[in-house]
Amino acid sequence: MTEVTTGAGGPESHAKHVVYCGVCSLPPEYCEFGGTVKKCEEWLKVQHPDMHERLYSEDVINANMSSLTIEAQKRADKDAQKKAAKAVAAEARALEIKASSKILIKRVERNKRKYVTAVQGLEAHGLDLKKVAKDFGKKFATGSSVTKLPGGGEEITVQGDLSDDIYDYLVETYEDIPEENIECIEDKKKKGGG
Amino acid sequence: MFKKDITPGAKSKVKSSAQRAIRGKIVEEYPLLGPYIDEIIPKKEQLDLVKLPDRVSLYTLGSNPLFFQHMDDALIPHLAVVHKYPNCFPRLRIDRGAIRFVLSGATLMAPGLTSAGGRLPNPDADEEDVERYGKEDLEPGTVVVVEAEGKENACLVGVLKMGTKEMKMVKKGAAMEGGHCLGDGLWMLNLG
């Protein structure tokens, strides 16, 4: 789709360009149903002040309210509150998971002097394993792949003993991962201490 | 259909002959899209087929989802496409009270369409509405786009379960099942 950004020109000639909210990804007019209204509103105010005015001015809100019966309004309000609470809780949980989840870099002995390095837990930080694996391969000029773990889940396996290099690389490139969440472990045959 | 967040499955390239067939099918199903088909699916571009859970396949162009299909059912446009070409699909409108239910993935019920804020194809309506929502009654099985009262963009797309004529008479029951609505799993789907 190359020429869809021709503004709000007539839909007869060209595709209509729709702005989507940067917070909840819906068209801004639907933000009020999303549960993150406050954030959406702030975002819109910064990004599209004209649209903000149109959607969040008092008259509009009042007009919206008056089109429903009082009873329905109450129910909708309750629902919206519930939804907002849910959204907040979900966000908090996601943050917590992110903060507490560790990245494990394991050096696994493959054949006496040969090692592979396994990296686990990257997906919890919102990274695409396939892409990261490719990056590792490029950076260290070795084979690097995503392998499935027997217990479910996936890890990245990099050929060669690269645990320290990967540690440095991760710290450097992904700044939003706290350094103390990355841990190097030496894995003997099955499980060993680091 | 996509109430939960979904993870995309295998992505594969669509054969050029299959791609031509898809183009043809889309134009046949949505004749109004005809003039824009080259904008939606340029002839030279490579379409991708992404498999989704429950035997749904999604056709994408790069990272833009275009149409999805359950088994061999009708090709249904993704809402992003609907937003770009809003005038090319048969449309209905729901009242304001129904929006929050629809957006949380509920089945579309007829009262939301038959009430004062809703719109169905109706030859007796005023001119503007006739132009927007048509006057021919729609049969069950038609793919329709559902707009919302007071909103500019569509919020739901799916296959009608009940004809609009029947809806007007009965004013009860499910009107559409398993559509694709704003904010559902398909909408949130991230195609790398």
From TrEMBL, chain A:
UniProt keywords, alphabetically? Cytoplasm, Ribonucleoprotein, Ribosomal protein
Keyword Ribonucleoprotein assigned: yes
Q: What would be one Pfam family of this protein?
A: SUI1
Question: Can you say where in the cell this protein is located?
Answer: Cytoplasm
PROSITE patterns, per this entry?
SUI1
Predominant place of localization: cytoplasm
Spell out the molecular function terms from Gene Ontology.
mRNA binding; translation initiation factor activity
Q: Which GO terms describe its cellular component?
A: cytoplasm; ribonucleoprotein complex; ribosome
UniProt xrefs under InterPro entries:
DENR/SUI1_TIF, DENR_C, DENR_eukaryotes, DENR_N, SUI1, SUI1_dom_sf
The GO biological-process annotations, alphabetized, read as: formation of translation preinitiation complex; translation reinitiation
Please give the CDD domains that the UniProt record associates with this protein.
Answer: DENR_C (cd11607)
SUI1 domain location is 103-174
Q: Does the keyword Transport apply?
A: no
Q: Where is the signal peptide?
A: none
Taxonomically, which superkingdom?
Eukaryota
Domain comment text?
The SUI1 domain may be involved in RNA binding.
Q: How does it assemble?
A: Interacts with the 40S ribosomal subunit.
Which family does the UniProt entry place this protein in? Answer: Belongs to the DENR family.
Write the protein's name: Translation machinery-associated protein 22
What species is given as this protein's source?
Lepidopterella palustris CBS 459.81
TrEMBL record, chain B:
Which molecular function terms from Gene Ontology are attached? RNA binding
UniProt keyword Ribonucleoprotein present = no
Compartments where found:
Cytoplasm
Q: Name one GO biological process term.
A: formation of translation preinitiation complex
Q: Where is the PUA domain?
A: 90-183
Q: Which UniProt keywords apply?
A: Cytoplasm
Q: What is the first-listed, main subcellular location in coarse terms?
A: cytoplasm
Which Gene Ontology cellular-component terms appear in the entry? cytoplasm
Question: Domain of life here?
Answer: Eukaryota
Q: Say which family it is in.
A: Belongs to the TMA20 family.
- Function, in words: Involved in translation.
Please give the name of this protein: Translation machinery-associated protein 20
Q: Which organism is it from?
A: Lepidopterella palustris CBS 459.81
